[in-house]
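Quick one, C-alpha cells below. Sequence please?
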C-alpha cells in the first residue's frame, strides 16, 4: 500500500528548541517553508490551529499560492464557525487550490484555551458537537438538494451549498483524539485517524480500537502517525543530536519562562505513559522531550538514528496498518530539506518493496 508523508508548516521559524526568529507572523518564512516542503517531496503540510495563532485556512490559501503540488491538511476546530459556512469555506479552498485541501478535525484538549474562544462545554460534549458538525459538513458537501438537520447543537433548515469539493465525495477528513468519545466519532466520520508517536504496543491498541469503532458503521479508514525524526550519519551522532535538542529546549524554557501548558487530553497522557517506560522505548523511540514538555502540543516523541535505522522503525508501524506519516523536525526548513534528501526517498522505496513482496500493511 502506498504511503503519504505530511510535513508541518508554521508561520515563523521556531520550535521547542529554537526561539522564534523574526516576526510572530513571518510571511517570508511561511513562503520559504512551504516551498521547501514542496521541493522535498512531501505530499501535504499540516497547518495547525490554536486560539491565539494565525487563522489556518488563510495560511493554507497563501501557502498554496506559492507552491505547485503540495496539498494541505488544515486543522479546524468544530463549534466556532457554523458547519454550513465551514463546509463552503473548505470547498472553496479545495477549488482555489485545485483539489489540494483536507481538513483535520481537532476538538481541543485544553479547557483554558477553548475558553479563549468562548467554548465552555466539557470534552464529551465537544465530541458530540463535533459529530453533528461533521454530519452537516458532509451533507453540505454532497447533497444535491437542500436538507434539514436538527440535533442537540445544530438546527439548520434547507441548507445547501452550490460549491462542491474537487475531491469526491468530499475533501479528506483527518481526525485526532484518543479518548473513547473521540474514537467513536472518528469511527463514524474519519477518512484518516491521526495518532501521535506512540509505542508499538500503544499504536497497535489504538489502531484496533479505531478499526472496531469504524466497523460499527461499515467503514474502513486509514491511519497516520506523527513523529519527530532526528537523523545523523551515525547512530551515535544522532543520539548526541537528540541530547543537544533536549538541552536547547531546557535552556530556552528556563530563559523565557515555562511555556509548556499541562495537557488535559488523553493523547498527551498516553505519550507521558510511554515516557514513563524510559527515555528509549522499542527500537529507537525517544521520549525525553515529551517528558520535559509534558507532551506539550502532543507531537513530541522522536525516532533517532541514521535514515536507514529510522525507516526500519517506521516500517514496523507500516506493518500494523499505518500508511501516513506526519513528520517534522526542530529546525523547520533545514530538517525539511534533510528529510527530502535522506528519509523520504528511502521510506517510499522500502514501503513499495514491502507491499510488492506481500508484506503490505494489514
Amino acid at each position: 500500500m502506498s504511503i503519504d508523508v505530511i510535513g508541518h508548516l508554521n508561520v515563523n521559524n521556531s520550535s521547542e528548541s529554537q526561539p522564534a526568529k523574526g516576526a510572530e507572523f513571518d510571511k517570508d518564512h511561511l513562503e520559504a517553508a512551504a516551498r521547501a516542503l514542496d521541493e522535498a517531496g512531501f505530499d501535504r503540510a499540516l497547518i495547525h490551529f490554536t486560539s491565539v495563532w494565525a487563522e489556518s485556512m488563510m495560511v493554507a490559501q497563501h501557502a498554496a499560492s506559492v507552491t505547485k503540488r503540495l496539498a494541505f491538511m488544515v486543522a479546524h476546530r468544530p463549534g466556532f464557525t457554523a458547519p454550513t459556512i465551514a463546509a463552503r469555506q473548505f470547498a472553496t479552498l479545495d477549488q482555489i487550490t485545485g483539489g489540494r485541501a483536507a481538513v483535520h478535525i481537532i476538538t481541543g484538549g485544553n479547557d483554558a484555551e477553548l475558553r479563549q474562544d468562548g467554548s465552555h462545554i466539557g470534552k464529551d460534549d465537544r465530541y458530540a458537537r463535533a459529530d453533528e458538525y461533521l454530519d452537516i459538513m458532509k451533507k453540505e458537501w454532497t447533497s444535491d438538494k437542500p436538507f434539514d438537520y436538527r440535533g442537540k447543537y445544530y438546527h439548520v433548515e434547507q441548507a445547501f451549498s452550490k460549491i462542491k469539493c474537487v475531491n469526491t465525495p468530499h475533501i479528506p477528513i483527518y481526525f485526532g483524539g484518543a479518548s473513547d468519545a473521540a474514537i467513536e466519532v472518528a469511527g463514524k466520520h474519519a477518512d484518516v485517524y491521526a495518532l501521535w508517536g506512540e509505542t508499538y504496543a500503544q499504536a497497535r491498541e489504538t489502531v484496533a480500537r479505531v478499526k472496531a469503532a469504524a466497523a460499527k458503521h461499515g467503514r474502513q479508514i486509514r491511519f497516520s502517525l506523527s513523529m519527530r525524526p532526528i537523523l545523523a550519519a551515525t547512530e551515535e551522532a544522532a543520539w548526541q543530536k537528540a541530547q543537544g535538542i533536549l538541552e536547547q529546549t531546557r535552556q530556552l524554557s528556563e530563559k523565557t519562562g515555562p511555556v509548556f501548558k499541562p495537557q488535559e487530553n488523553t493523547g498527551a497522557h498516553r505519550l507521558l505513559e510511554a515516557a514513563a517506560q524510559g527515555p528509549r522505548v522499542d527500537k529507537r523511540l525517544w521520549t525525553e522531550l515529551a517528558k520535559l514538555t509534558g507532551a506539550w502540543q502532543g507531537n513530541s516523541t522522536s525516532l533517532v538514528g541514521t535514515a536507514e535505522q529510522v525507516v526500519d522503525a517506521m516500517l514496523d508501524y507500516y506493518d500494523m496498518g499505518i500508511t501516513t506519516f506526519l513528520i517534522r523536525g526542530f529546525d523547520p526548513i533545514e530538517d525539511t530539506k534533510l528529510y527530502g534528501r535522506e528519509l523520504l526517498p528511502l521510506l517510499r522505496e522500502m514501503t513499495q518493496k514491502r507491499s510488492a513482496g506481500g508484506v503490505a500493511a494489514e
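The chain has one domain: 4-356. The first strand starts at residue 4 and ends at 8.
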